[in-house]
Write a structure and sequence with these properties.
By secondary structure, this protein is an alpha/beta fold. It has 2 domains: about 200 residues, Glycogen Phosphorylase B (Rossmann fold); about 180 residues, Rossmann fold (3-Layer(aba) Sandwich), CATH 3.40.50. About 45% of the residues lie in helices and about 20% in strands. The chain has 17 helices and 14 strands. Helix 1 crosses helix 17 and helix 2 runs parallel beside helix 3. The longest helix has 19 residues.
Length: about 400
């Protein structure tokens, strides 16, 4: 068995936040003696080996009407030549938002006898609905849903971000034997309860304050305007000694920037885009972390939010929106105050966390010391086991 991870967005190595899961899965495959190639469709031909992984770029001309077909045929030819038996496609890193093209590419790969593993970190159509790009019930929605079902049917294995998500798709008719829903896990070498935020707090002048943190990619479903902006606007009145520490990027960044400029409050600190290796320090600088999401779409309701687990891995409590995942994948997590998605519910959750800060912080620290169930050390091997099992069953 040989596995190729396929990319059309270029390969970033050493890995960053976007492709770190591919790296974790790759290293586990390598550990088991399985050959791993990162195969990129680009404009030049290159080959190198690093950290036990082959990095290969194949050249495809930028001719609009034939590029897709040539890409599929060249990738197939390379895989056949190198005896690669499995293609692993991360939904964010290969033909994102080009589902019909990806479906065609996948069909060529599958009829050549190569297995296809789809890592649906953020299932495309649900994500598009959550950010407002596709309207549920529209003609575009129905066409894309059919394309998605065909894509799933051609996949040997579909990896979903949570067990709750896998149950949902199974109930909607997707073959449960093709599905694995598993939280990818937290890297315990990076996110540890020993992380100190003291120097950062000192540099920001917030040592003796109650610090509320929010970090992530700024999207509509994260309730930036509906909730985070309202908390910021009323922060000094409700929590006179509090600061709101924000880090992130995205389409609604302008909302945060206005707050950071002091128009809503002079107690808003906007840290910009935080490098992933710095995230534990920023989490450690906060007393309480926030993870609000909308409950009006299934993407938000069934995804497993990394920021909840990352905060707890560092030993800091979280106020988070209760979703279906909180009842399934995160049901045993300690140190979380589960609330609704309205401003009032979230504000009451923060107030409760503030009043019971010592108790909830102790719970979070206990969870941090017992984090195996939510770590990459446990869950990445389970993903690799599922890949191997799916391929073996398909022979």
């Amino acid at each position: 068995m040989k596995v190729a991870f396929i990319f059309d967005v270029g390969i970033k190595y050493p890995p960053d936040f976007n492709n770190i899961k591919c790296y974790y899965v790759s290293k586990e495959l390598c550990r088991r003696g399985i050959s791993v190639t990162w195969l990129s469709i680009g404009e030049k031909v290159s080959f190198q080996v690093d950290d036990g992984i082959k990095f290969v770029e194949i050249s495809v001309p930028r001719i609009r009407f034939i590029r897709l077909l040539v890409s599929a045929l060249k990738a197939t030819a390379y895989c056949r030549k190198e005896r690669i038996t499995v293609i692993y496609a991360d939904d964010w890193l290969f033909m994102r938002r080009r589902l019909l093209s990806k479906l065609f590419f996948q069909f060529i790969i599958r009829i050549s006898g190569i297995f296809w593993v789809s890592d649906m970190r953020d299932p495309l159509l649900d994500f598009e609905i959550a950010i407002g790009r596709v309207k549920e019930g529209s003609l575009s929605y129905f066409i894309k849903r059919i394309e998605e079902l065909l894509f799933y049917s051609l996949s040997t294995l579909v990896i979903l971000p949570s067990e709750a998500y896998a149950r949902l798709l199974s109930e909607q008719g997707i073959d449960p034997k093709k599905l694995i829903g598993i939280f990818r896990g937290i890297d315990r070498k990076l996110f540890t309860p020993n992380t100190s935020g003291h120097k950062l707090r000192e540099s920001l002048g917030i040592n003796n304050s109650f610090v509320i943190g929010w970090f992530g990619i700024v999207q509509k479903y994260r309730l930036i305007d509906e909730l985070l902006a309202s908390i910021a606007a009323n922060l000094e009145r409700i929590f006179p000694d509090a600061y709101l520490l924000i880090g992130g990027k995205g389409s609604r960044l302008e909302s945060i920037t206005r707050l950071a400029n002091g128009r809503a409050s002079n107690r808003i600190i906007y840290a910009g885009t935080i490098p992933y290796n710095k995230m534990p320090e920023y989490i450690a600088a906060c007393d309480v972390l926030l993870c609000p999401v909308s409950t009006k779409n299934r993407f938000s309701l069934f995804s497993a939010w990394l920021k909840i687990a990352e905060a707890l891995a560092v030993g800091h409590p979280v106020v988070a929106t209760r979703t279906f995942t909180s009842y399934v994948d995160f049901k045993d997590l300690r140190g979380v105050v589960w609330v609704g998605s309205t401003y009032e519910e979230f504000l009451n959750g923060i107030k409760w966390a503030r009043q019971n800060l010592r108790k909830i912080s102790e719970e979070a620290m206990k969870q941090a010391s017992d984090f195996h169930l939510y770590s990459i050390d446990r869950n990445i091997p389970r993903i690799v086991n599922a890949i191997i099992k799916a391929v073996e069953k398909s022979f």
